[in-house]
Every structure is written in structure tokens, then in C-alpha cells.
Amino acid sequence: METPDTGMLIRLSDSGETVANGEEDIRDRHVKDKDGEDLGKVSDLLVDATEHKVRFIEVASGGFLGIGREKTYIPVDAITAITAGEVRIDQTRSHITGSPLYDPSLVRERDTYGSILEYYGYVPYWTPGYRYPDYPNYRR
Question: Which positions fall inside the PRC-barrel domain (predicted)?
């Protein structure tokens, strides 16, 4: 059985597009782990260019004035709550620290983001039966 072409993941900031409702744009919001620990800020969104759905949030942490910042890619499936100032996820800081490195030059390689989803314990969004998280009503 063939899986549908999920298209290439692109950063929203590189796409020339924007979030239709500005209040739903979570970029620049603080990201907290399941224990309330600060993980950084949402610096961008990785969007499936074919389906126009956000698949990962790019979280930047550390550095000074944007220099030396580390970036982590977390599946949108991990989001448990969104408020005006923060995004909560269902993972711990220590688990996120050990996540696979994401190489933006490999966005065309489905195995790359498949391994990230697997690490976090989520099924790939291109598999039958996958259900996209409800927005803005993420699970609580």
C-alpha cells in the first residue's frame, strides 16, 4: 500500500505565507515542558507544503541576541495547551535534550522527520488513521 506524498516541510518564515488568524500564530511564545520548565521560544513553524498543516514547532533556546541559539524540532502532536504567552508540551526537558538533531537540508527526506516523530512516541502523520491535533483546542 502506498502512502500519500506528504510534501516537503518548509519553515513558515521561508514560505511567503502567514497564519490566517494572527491570534493563532504561536511564534515567539514561550515553550514549557510538562513540568513547567522553560524550553525556549517558538522561533518558527515547519509546515507541510502540500497539506498546509504545521507538523513541527521550531524551538530556539540559549544564545545571546540570536547568536549561538540551539534549535529543537518538536511535533505539534506534543502540544497540550496554548495560552496567549506560552505553549505547553507533554515531554520533559531531559527527553527533548536527547532528541535527534534535525538537519534543515534533509526536509525532503521523510525518514528524517519520521525518526523525530518516533523518538517522541508519535505515529507518522502520513500513516493511515493519523488524526491531526485539534487547533486551538489541544488536549488538556
Answer: 25-93
Closest CA to 136 of 15, 1, 20: 20
* Four-CA torsion 26, 136, 71, 27, nearest 10 degrees: -10
Nearest CA to 6 out of 126, 137, 130, 138 is that of: 126
Q: pLDDT at position 43, please?
A: 92
Q: What is the pLDDT of residue 107?
A: 56
Residue with cell 494572527: 22
* CATH T-level fold of 9-120: SH3 type barrels. (2.30.30)
The torsion angle over the Cα atoms of residues 95, 98, 99 and 101, rounded to 10 degrees, is: 160
Q: Which amino acid is at 107?
A: V
- Helices (H), ranges, 5-128: 12-15, 93-97, 110-120
Q: Rounded distance, CA 1 to CA 133, Å? A: 25
3 state SS of 24: helix
| C-alpha–C-alpha distance, residues 82 and 31, integer Å | 9
Report the chain (140 residues): mean pLDDT per 10 consecutive residues. 59 83 87 94 89 89 60 92 93 89 62 85 89 62
